[in-house]
Design goal:
Radius of gyration of chain A: 44 Å
Largest sheet of chain A: 5 strands, antiparallel
Shape of chain B: globular
Strand content of chain A: 5-15%
Shape of chain A: rod-shaped
Helix content of chain A: 40-55%
Oligomer: heterodimer
Distance between the termini of chain B: 14 Å
Largest interface: A-B, 22 and 17 residues
Number of strands of chain B: 5
Mean pLDDT of chain A: 79
Number of strands of chain A: 9
Largest sheet of chain B: 5 strands, parallel
Helix content of chain B: 25-40%
Structural class of chain A: alpha+beta
Chain lengths: ~600, ~130
């Protein structure tokens, strides 16, 4: 019995649906079951395709049938003709015809019954039953014996075993067959449907599993490029593409200077993410995106190209591009990027099932990118506001212009050199930025005084850490920065202010910012003195280690590259100059 | 190579279908059971090379099934992979009393099911698509 018509489904990928190559009237198992059931009643069954080629033959049949079947010019040809003839009008060949028993070309003696296997409006095939009703047979069969070179005596003796026991109703037998055949056909069809559903379910499970996996990766704390790479690798594992890629658009618009590298304009690696060893180069992907991306709109949700060679605009990529699926990534109505699936790694093409899987991923990636953008925007806004606030305070005094920015940079650099966690270093940067916010409460006359401060004036000046901490205390998100603001004028020998804390009792943020603050004060011009040379400032940090400064942190600071540190600081100052006009404007109106 | 026999035990027919068809298509023989008790009976009858079982099942839970398998010399060496709902975890005692080698969380990946079976049965994953002949 042939198994040709139930091809095993060995497809590994998610995207392919099982499509039987020919309509299948009945599974081999179902046919064998029918043949076994009707053999004792003298029926010999054969199964045929709608195009009258045989699919299966009852091979356990009595020798009579096997002899006739295997003979040259034997039953095979005659039955095929008969099937072809009856298929010309399959619906007419119904049970009432069994009454007059379709005698066919072998009469008398052999009765043929054609049972069409109807599936809806279509004939899926034919079950042909033959029975030998008399053990003696004459002319037509004898002629067949002659034509096929069969031994008449042998066939005659085999016929005695194959003949139907007398007294059984022919019509009833055939009626039972028609009913059973129809059921077997339906069951086979349902099994195929179950297989197909199961396969679909497998795809859905795979997809669901993928979605779970990738949602776990979509953390706003990770850089988008890293998240997209992780997602792409998960997808590549289950889809039929050779490679995948995300190409994000350059983000336009104003961006405040920020310590978070991720929120500056993306570098090439952040903008084009390739997944898979066979992935095209950055240039190729950029060009693909340029070629295809502008076409997207609401009525073109994706592009599916299965023969890239047919597209003149892709002629430049003909060497490496065969199949391509392009999905747009939208943020509201702006295209923020595209996702590519490149070259199907199975024989065959990308189908709508593949596209559906890619879309499931793209539909989750787009909001993630959007959220990430919003998150970055918020962070940028916060940073922008903080910078604006401290710059405007620094601008009260032309000499301290850019001071807070530099202290923030120095403090962060020192924290990094002390091997503090990256998150802590970022917080120290912010604390450095805000450490002098309290100076907003110090009168300009004191801040900008060129001569020595009186005792009262100095007392007013010494209030700025507390004032700053009080101003910021209402902002829940920066509570952890307050010790840096409050305690950056403490000394490890306990002679500092405002609390007179000593040694390790001074919060870490305070001890770090203290060094950064003093170093910047020494290396820049002040109203009351000119800047010290760098070597003198470094020597001063060394001299005061253990009295004013935490000795461990001072050691770390002395190990830094001070020239580079100051050069970086000067870069910041030139940016801070932008805010210096505030000071100029103020002094000119004041004059 | 001798065809490997796997018992798949779950009261949800679609899970059984998904798992069984994935394994059959890779050339393995699959026996299916719809509850823990049937799973136990079939495990004793067929001595499968490994078992995939659900946790929550009528008559006998997956864990009870595994404990009974472990308790009988005839079935105490059959490796088991358990399929569970999200957020479920086995205690060390559960693992000690059973032969559960791995727990896969629903919705699992059918490919992962096949990979797991191949790992446990020491089968090289077939690269060709030929399992039909």
């Amino acid at each position: 019995m042939t198994t040709l018509f139930f091809p095993a489904q060995t497809t590994e990928g998610v995207g392919r649906l099982p499509v039987p190559e020919l309509p299948t009237p009945m599974s081999p198992e179902a046919f064998a079951g029918l043949a076994n059931a009707f053999r004792p009643a003298g029926l010999w069954l054969t199964l045929w395709n709608p195009n009258a080629t045989e699919i299966a033959v009852d091979e356990k049949a009595p020798a009579f049938w096997r002899t006739l079947w295997s003979a040259k010019n034997g039953l095979r040809t005659i039955l095929a003709d008969h099937v072809r003839e009856s298929l010309k009008n399959p619906h007419a060949s119904d049970h009432d015809q069994a009454e007059t028993a379709n005698t066919g070309p072998l009469a008398p003696g052999i009765v043929l019954e054609v049972v069409p296997l109807i599936c809806g409006a279509r004939c899926a095939g034919v079950l042909l039953a033959a029975a030998l009703t008399e053990s003696k047979f004459d002319e037509p069969l004898l002629r067949l014996c002659d034509r096929s070179g069969l031994d008449k005596m042998l066939l005659q003796s085999q016929a005695r075993d194959a003949a139907i026991p007398a007294g059984q109703s022919r019509t009833g037998r055939f009626l039972g067959l028609a009913c059973a055949a129809s059921q077997a056909h339906q069951i086979s069809k349902m099994k195929l449907e179950v297989n197909s559903l199961t396969h679909n379910l497998q795809c859905t499970y795979e997809e669901l599993h993928l979605i779970y996996q990738i949602s776990g990766q979509m953390s706003l704390a990770n850089k988008p490029a890293r998240v997209l790479r992780g997602i792409g690798e998960e997808l590549l594992d289950v889809c039929r593409a050779e490679s995948l890629a995300f190409v994000l658009r350059e983000v336009e618009g104003m961006r405040a200077p920020s310590f978070r590298a991720a929120s500056t304009i993306p570098s090439l690696e952040d903008r084009i993410i390739q997944i898979g060893e066979a992935a095209p180069t950055h240039d190729q992907l950029d060009r693909l995106a340029e070629c295809l991306a502008p076409d997207f709109n609401d009525s073109l949700p994706h592009v599916l190209i299965n023969r890239a060679a047919d597209h003149p605009e892709l002629a430049w990529a003909a060497d490496w591009l065969r199949h391509l699926v392009v999905l747009p990534l939208w943020r509201n109505h702006d295209l923020i990027g595209v996702m590519f699936a490149i070259n199907c790694n199975d024989p065959g093409d990308f189908t709508s099932v593949d596209v559906q899987l890619f879309r499931a991923v793209a539909d989750r990636v787009a909001p993630f990118l959007e959220n990430h953008q919003l998150y970055d925007d918020l962070a940028d806004l916060l940073m922008g506001l903080l910078h604006a606030m401290v710059n405007s305070i620094d601008a009260k005094d032309a000499y301290t212009c850019g001071h807070s920015e530099r202290v923030a940079l120095y403090a962060k650099t020192l924290a990094q050199a002390a091997h503090l966690p990256a998150g802590t270093c970022d917080r120290i940067y912010l604390a450095g930025l805000l450490h002098d916010v309290g100076k907003i409460g110090v009168p300009d006359a004191i801040l900008c005084k060129t001569g020595k401060l009186t005792e009262d004036e100095f007392a007013a000046m010494k209030k700025h850490p507390e004032v700053g901490a009080r101003i910021l205390s209402k902002i829940r998100q920066i509570k952890d920065l307050l010790p840096g603001v409050m305690n950056h004028h403490e000394r490890v020998d306990g002679r500092g202010y405002p609390d007179g804390l000593a040694g390790e009792d001074i919060p870490l943020f305070g001890r770090i910012i203290c060094i950064a603050d003093c170093f910047d004060a020494m290396t820049t011009n002040r109203t009351y003195r000119a800047a010290m040379p760098l070597h003198a400032a470094v020597a001063e940090v060394r001299r005061c280690s253990g009295t004013q400064f935490d000795p461990h942190l001072a050691d770390v600071f002395l190990g830094l590259n001070h020239e580079k540190l100051m050069a970086d600081g000067r870069l910041l100052s030139s940016e801070a100059d932008r805010s210096a006009w505030i000071h100029d404007a103020k002094t000119s109106t004041g004059a | 190579m001798l065809q490997k026999k796997i018992l798949v035990c779950d009261d949800e027919p679609h899970i059984v279908h998904v798992v069984a068809s994935k394994l059959r298509n890779a050339g393995m023989e699959v026996v299916t059971a719809a509850d823990g008790q049937e799973g136990l009976d079939l495990a004793r009858l067929h001595s499968p090379d490994m078992i995939f079982t659900d946790y929550q099942m009528p008559l006998l839970s997956g864990l009870e099934l595994c404990a009974k398998l472990k308790a009988s010399p005839q079935t105490n060496r059959i490796p088991v992979v358990m399929l569970t709902a999200r957020g479920f975890s086995l205690t060390d005692a559960d693992l000690a009393n059973t032969n559960i080698l791995k727990v896969l969380v629903k919705p699992f990946s059918p490919r992962e099911i096949l990979r797991t079976a191949q790992e446990i049965l020491n089968i090289e994953p077939a690269h060709s698509e030929a399992a039909s002949s």
